[in-house]
From TrEMBL:
Alphabetical GO biological process terms: phosphorelay signal transduction system
InterPro entries, per the entry: HPT_dom_sf, Sig_transdc_His_kin_Hpt_dom
PROSITE patterns xref list: HPT
Keyword set includes Phosphoprotein: yes
Keywords, comma-separated and alphabetical: Phosphoprotein, Two-component regulatory system
GO molecular function: protein kinase activity
Protein name: Histidine-containing phosphotransfer (HPt) domain protein
Record lineage: Bacteria, Pseudomonadati, Pseudomonadota, Gammaproteobacteria, Alteromonadales
Native organism: Colwellia psychrerythraea (strain 34H / ATCC BAA-681) (Vibrio psychroerythus)
Keyword Phosphoprotein: yes
SUPFAM superfamilies: Histidine-containing phosphotransfer domain, HPT domain
Domain HPt: 25-116
Modified residues (Phosphohistidine): 64
């Protein structure tokens, strides 16, 4: 069986996820992922509302929450992007672009996680 390393999968922290698997089992990891998928929609909507209302504190709060959620399910690249944009003091228009990129990166991370789950 082919085992990916962190380098061959920039989306996921496979070391962290393997630790979860070893200590919690696949069913719990699947439940964690399902919860993330539910919650991330709320986070993205909250980030979008903050962007539309040009609320810096809202933007920072909701990016921070999503950053923690992404880290907890080993979404390495998504977490890194949220770290970069969380404190971004840029225009409402620029945040709109950042939000679109964030949604794409989240979709990519969710896809990578689903693929990883299928291999274990």
């Amino acid at each position: 069986m082919f085992v990916e390393t962190k380098q061959s999968n920039p989306d996921l922290d496979l070391e962290l996820l393997q630790g979860y698997l070893d200590s919690l089992g696949k069913v719990i990891v699947e439940q964690m992922f399902a919860l993330y998928c539910q919650q991330v929609e709320i986070y993205l909507n909250d980030i979008e509302n903050a962007q539309l209302n040009d609320s810096l504190s809202g933007w920072q709060n909701h990016c921070h929450k999503m950053k923690g959620a992404a880290a907890s399910v080993g979404m390495y690249q998504l977490h890194g992007q949220l770290k970069l944009i969380e404190k971004a003091e840029v225009s409402k228009e620029k945040k709109s672009v950042l939000l679109k990129e964030l949604r794409l990166l989240n979709d990519q991370a969710v896809f990578a996680f689903k693929n990883w789950l299928e291999t274990i």
